[in-house]
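<derive_structure_tokens>
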Amino acid sequence: MHLNLHLLMVGSAKVLLSLAVGMGLAFAAFLVVGRFLRWRDIREEVLRGNVAAGVLFAASLIALGLLIQHSLMASFAAFDALLLVNAFDWPLFVSASYYAVVHTALALGVGAVAITSAGILFDLATPNVDDFEEVHKGNVAIAIAIGSVILVLAIVLAPALSTLLDGILPSPSQSGT
């Protein structure tokens, strides 16, 4: 059996990036949903047993995950194109890693704006009802409805977001620039 050190390095970089993004994603979801619902700390609502808050938080986390998945897939394709076909090169590795982090951070930012926009649109579509106050009170039905809007938006937006981010931040060239 032969150990492929090159493949091990590229795979390790992908795992580390995925873990960092996963932790950042959870933290960002707490912040986005908390601000989106005009709550100081959604964690307290979830720990208090507010199922509606948990449903909405989970929908937001899944939506961000869908958006980030497309960004990571594009970043990993750049890793593969640059690093798996060439001999391992530290400057190229650093350049590809930087590309992946910036690409994913942009996707997370756009995802946060999309989730917030979906909530605002839902709120505007239901006049005379303070949807977020209803979630705060534990209204699971409203939380499921808002969460569904957020998830549908993420599913529809994800492929376009990946292409948009590729246009804004093209992958590094083989010269490491």
Notes: The radius of gyration is 19 Å. The chain has one domain: 21-168.
